[in-house]
Amino acid sequence: MERHLPTPSKAEHTKHLHQYIMGFALSVTLTLAAYFFTTNGITGWPLFLSLSVMALAQFAIQIWFFLHIRDEGEPRWKLQAFNLAMILLTIFIVGTLWIMRNLDYHMMTKDGNKDYNEFIVKDEGIGN
Amino acid sequence: MSDKHTTLALEKLDKSNFGFWVYLMTDLLLFGTLFATYAVLHTATAGGPSAKEIFELPGILAETLILLASSFTVGMALLAAQQRNHRHAAMWLMVTFALGASFLALELHEFKMLVADGHSWRTSAFLSSFFTLVGTHGAHITAGLIWLAVCTWRVMKQGITDNMLRRLTILSLFWHFLDIVWIFIFTYVYLLGAAS
């Protein structure tokens, strides 16, 4: 039954409490905003881009206010592990979409009735 | 409470914190691969329903807000635990458990309705990748609920020891992490799926 960990001071406690309230309020606002953007007729690329920005903003807010990544002392190992994970995630997701889109294009599965000669000449620029 | 003991206890807390953080980062990569799979397959409906036809946004918004609230309450539990206030900590943990269980119940209800309408994971590549991604998140929530229940019980039984505080710290990291993953499921699977 060890109790050696120090108790945060009243000021620290209040600071953390404010961080949680702030993070929660901002997250709720962004969630509701994203929902209303979607249900009020915005479509296509504008919707995709605005929702992406809001999702990334909420991601940053929760990392900041809930996961307390900025409270870490030197050396900032958590931040480095996080950065590595972000780089790997980008490679996974962008790489997968790129490769599969390319494959899809060359298999011509989207428009199977397309004239093969037209595809070679127009889309690939071969034989002009 | 001697200084030497305090230093050792803080060091131990830092280590368990970092170790768990590394696990969370690898879990993030797991979800990343599932997201990538979903992104590739979400239009492959194979004659089955599309995302637009099956998602009920109001229910999903409710799930999202419930999970977000639970992320806040687990933070409150940790703050109470740091003050060694085991009654408040147990109370907030129970609130978190109730919110998490409501989220899971709503999600299972959604899955049940989809399967009842004949839109199970066997219908199309879209639904396979959908159930895998959202189901993996749900499995994490289930594990988190068990963990929450065990921690609540132990907090009530033995109060806030150093070990308990360490466990609650990483439990709160885990629970916040699940809410972060859900932001992207909410945005990319549900909102953009329903709008496409």
How does this model look, in words?
The complex is a heterodimer of chains A (128) and B (196). By secondary structure, chain A is mainly α. Helix content of chain A is 71%, strand content 0%. Chain A has four helices and no strands. The model of chain A has no long low-confidence stretch (mean pLDDT 87). Chain B is mostly helical and 196 residues long. Chain B has helices at 3-41, 51-54, 57-82, 86-116, 125-158, 162-195. In chain B, helix 3 (57-82) runs antiparallel to helix 4 (86-116), helix 4 (86-116) runs antiparallel to helix 5 (125-158) and helix 5 (125-158) packs antiparallel against helix 6. At the A-B interface, helix 1, helix 2 and helix 3 of A face helix 1, helix 3 and helix 6 of B.
Strands, helices and their partners?
The complex is a heterodimer of chains A (128) and B (196).
Chain A: H1 10-39, H2 44-65, H3 77-107, H4 116-123
Chain B: H1 3-41, H2 51-54, H3 57-82, H4 86-116, H5 125-158, H6 162-195
Report the CATH topology name of chain B.
Four Helix Bundle (Hemerythrin (Met), subunit A)
Distance between the termini of chain A: 82 Å
Number of domains of chain A: 2
Name the shape of chain A in a single word: elongated
Written as H for each helix and E for each strand, in order along the chain, the element string of chain A is HHHH
Pair with the biggest interface: A-B, 49 and 57 residues
Task: State Rg of chain A.
Answer: 24 Å
CATH superfamily of chain B: Cytochrome c oxidase, subunit III, four-helix bundle
Average pLDDT rating of chain B:
95
Cα end-to-end separation of chain B: 61 Å
Low-confidence stretches of chain A: none
| Architecture (CATH level 2) name of chain B | Up-down Bundle
The CATH class name of chain B reads Mainly Alpha
The run of helices and strands of chain B is: HHHHHH
How many β-strand runs of chain B? 0
Helix content of chain B: over 70%
